[in-house]
Write a sequence for this structure.
């Protein structure tokens, strides 16, 4: 390579993206000679063209101007033809570069005689994406661009793999290949999309290789060049590609299946844990999803400017192991997701390995969310590492084994459920009493825990930043009475006995028997088959996507298919995300007088509180009254809540590290770690890479298979009714045994 490299940036729109891109190229530190060629493709934004003219006049780059919009393909062809002797690098105007990025890409281009193209890693680059393969990503909060690119350089120095196609956001092209196979195909691909894939496929057919540089990262914000056209262009491009290159899709799918860059991603992520720019918080929880997982995800987002989150939990994919992983839920939100970056530790034999890994990390503290299925020795990790810890109290697990303050009949047993210093709660006293702070999501939860752990430092902080307590922001629809029209009552969730499944069935049956014109719809399902229409006035919708619930309720309301939401819990729920959805949808509610419900509907219109242990006939009578009077009866006014909520003492988004007892100086001291060198990195990777392995032992495979069989049998219609006679405590112990 005896000539400078032409770095070609076609520009169409997006002033700030263009400024950021040009500034990043200018401030990067490369030793190889290059000329920056910027092409104004007849931008529709005058401020963009003016910026380019001013910077070109100042000598920042060579500017070419298209007097009519040619689109990406013809524009970069013009740039590539400017200097017929030079290699080129095509760079989108919505990218950011750092460090000696071009030096590394150029080295990859000449590591082999027949390299046609080179593409680096990016956050938004399909098969070259990080951290999640084949997805658009945001940069992890602990690795800004310059840090992340440097980690790629250190973890994967000089490494590259072959790919069936480069990705056009940042693609180096050897001049010798251009000379042999020609430029991009304007005639076929028009203004853009598919042209670089076609070029790479033509290069392969001519004996060239496309390389993926594993030691370089370029940030790509995505799709500003063509505005709203890009989706249509993408859809048309694949058909053209397959017509010209019938094996293209097969080759891409084979590459995705083999994923030769996986180790490079993993090593970089592991390196980011010890060399990132943020302290780490380790969240400890169960693996059962639900509101606990939702809160951990919510908290992870809220604190991402203060700390980087890891989740320590019993593995779903590798029974008998703890998983240390990123915070992520499955697509339906039902369970935590173990990513390719998950580290696994045998709960019996690798306690020391986990401790050795954690002690090398810049850990600000631990945050315990749940200990169900978690080995008790995990509670000692903060003390051994001399780090503070928080505890979020999502239910009553630390007070009683039932978790819900319910007895043998699956109903709330009142204050007598809380017995201070009993055998069960005593096992958790060091965790609860020793925490910097124990956080309750409602005053009701706070009161129970203050009885069970009088020495704990308890603080009430509502989930979702307490925004659903601001009732003026979520206007409530009145119930409108209409002759002959039924009252439409929605129930939400996976109803167990303690969540009122039997009560719902009884009330719906009474309404059918007594010709009370009230119809119930369960958005979700129950622990058994409930009596539905025509034997009752109940219909069951089935599973729903949790993230879509508020929208689903709003749709029901707009269509006249929802008048109110009824919460049927027979235990004092500590928060209730489903109530948040009902509030957001602006629907009236009927709630029990225990748990978080009364304080969360305080001074909210069209919200009625019923004694939790009211009979089915009492609820049927209430709904009949609401049907006839629309909530305006004098006695209904007496059913409004008189339980005020707590005032929010802290906002996680601003004061999380302070909750841990850390100030800015503490954080700085924690991160004042020696610059990572090659020997330290190699030692770290040698320690952690074996823990990435997901392979199961024979016994673990057998336990997992048996667990799946039992779950299938339990949910099969013919056995579902029998399962309800097996005590929930026994079911839980069987699951725990098989999961170890």
């Amino acid at each position: 390579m005896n000539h400078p490299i032409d770095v070609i940036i076609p520009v169409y729109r997006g002033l700030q993206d263009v400024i950021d891109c040009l500034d990043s190229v200018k401030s990067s530190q490369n030793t190889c000679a290059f000329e920056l060629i910027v092409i104004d493709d007849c931008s529709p934004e005058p401020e963009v063209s003016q910026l380019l003219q001013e910077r070109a006049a100042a000598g920042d780059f060579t500017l070419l101007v298209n007097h009519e919009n040619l689109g990406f393909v013809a524009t970069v062809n013009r740039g590539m033809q400017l200097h017929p002797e030079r290699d080129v690098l095509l760079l989108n105007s919505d990218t950011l570069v750092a460090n000696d990025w071009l030096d590394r890409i150029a080295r990859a281009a000449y590591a082999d005689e027949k390299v046609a193209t080179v593409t680096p890693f990016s956050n938004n680059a399909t098969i070259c994406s990080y951290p999640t393969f084949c997805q658009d990503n945001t940069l992890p909060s602990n690795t800004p661009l310059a840090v992340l690119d440097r980690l790629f350089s250190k973890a994967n120095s000089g490494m590259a793999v072959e790919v069936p196609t480069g990705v056009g956001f940042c693609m180096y092209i050897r001049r010798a290949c251009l000379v042999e196979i020609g430029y991009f195909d304007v005639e076929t691909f028009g203004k853009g999309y598919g042209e670089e894939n076609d070029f790479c496929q033509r290069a392969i057919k001519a004996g060239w290789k496309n390389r993926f540089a594993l030691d370089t990262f370029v940030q790509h914000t995505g799709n500003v060049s063509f505005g709203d056209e890009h989706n249509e262009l993408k859809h048309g491009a694949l058909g053209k590609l397959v017509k010209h290159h019938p094996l293209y899709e097969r080759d891409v799918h084979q590459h995705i299946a083999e994923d030769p860059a996986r180790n490079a991603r993993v090593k970089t992520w592991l390196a980011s844990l010890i060399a990132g720019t943020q302290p780490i918080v380790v969240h400890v929880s169960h693996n059962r999803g639900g509101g606990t997982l939702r809160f951990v995800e919510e908290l992870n987002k809220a604190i991402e400017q203060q700390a980087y989150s890891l989740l320590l939990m019993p593995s779903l994919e590798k029974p008998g192991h703890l998983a240390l992983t990123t915070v992520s839920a499955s697509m339906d939100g039902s369970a935590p997701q173990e990513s390719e970056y998950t580290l696994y530790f045998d709960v019996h034999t690798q306690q020391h390995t986990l401790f050795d890994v954690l002690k090398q990390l810049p850990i600000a503290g631990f945050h315990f969310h749940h200990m169900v299925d978690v080995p008790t020795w995990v509670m000692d990790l903060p003390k051994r590492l001399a780090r503070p810890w928080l505890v979020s109290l999502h239910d009553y697990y630390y007070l009683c084994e039932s978790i819900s303050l319910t007895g043998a009949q699956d109903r709330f047993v009142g204050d007598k459920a809380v017995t201070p210093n009993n055998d069960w709660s005593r096992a958790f006293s060091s965790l609860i009493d020793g925490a910097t702070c124990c956080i309750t999501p409602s005053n009701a939860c706070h009161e129970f825990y203050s009885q069970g752990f009088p020495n704990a430092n308890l603080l009430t902080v509502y989930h979702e930043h307490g925004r659903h307590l601001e009732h003026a922001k979520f206007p409530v629809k009145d119930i409108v009475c209409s002759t002959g029209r039924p009252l439409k009552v929605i129930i939400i969730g996976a109803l167990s006995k303690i969540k009122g499944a039997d009560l719902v069935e009884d009330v719906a049956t009474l309404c059918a028997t007594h010709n009370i014109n009230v119809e119930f719809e369960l958005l979700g399902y129950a622990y058994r088959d409930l009596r539905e229409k025509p034997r009752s006035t109940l219909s069951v919708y089935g599973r729903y996507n949790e993230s879509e619930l508020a929208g689903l309720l709003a749709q029901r309301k707009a269509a006249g298919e929802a008048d109110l939401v009824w919460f049927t819990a027979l235990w004092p729920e500590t928060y209730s995300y489903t109530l948040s959805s009902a509030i957001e949808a602006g629907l009236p509610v009927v709630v029990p007088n225990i748990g978080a419900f009364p304080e969360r509907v305080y001074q909210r219109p069209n919200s009625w509180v019923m004694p939790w242990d009211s009979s089915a006939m009492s609820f049927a009578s209430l709904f009949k009254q609401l049907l006839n009077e629309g909530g305006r009866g004098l006695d209904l006014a007496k059913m409004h809540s008189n339980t005020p909520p707590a005032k929010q003492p802290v906002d996680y988004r601003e004061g999380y590290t302070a909750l841990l007892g850390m100030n800015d100086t503490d954080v700085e001291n924690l991160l004042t770690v020696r610059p990572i060198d090659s020997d330290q990195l190699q030692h770290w990777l040698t320690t952690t890479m074996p823990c990435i392995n997901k392979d199961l032992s024979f016994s673990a495979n057998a336990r997992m298979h048996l667990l799946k069989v039992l779950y299938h049998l339990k949910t099969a219609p013919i056995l579902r009714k029998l399962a309800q006679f097996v005590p929930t405590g026994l079911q839980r112990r069987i699951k725990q045994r098989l999961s170890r």
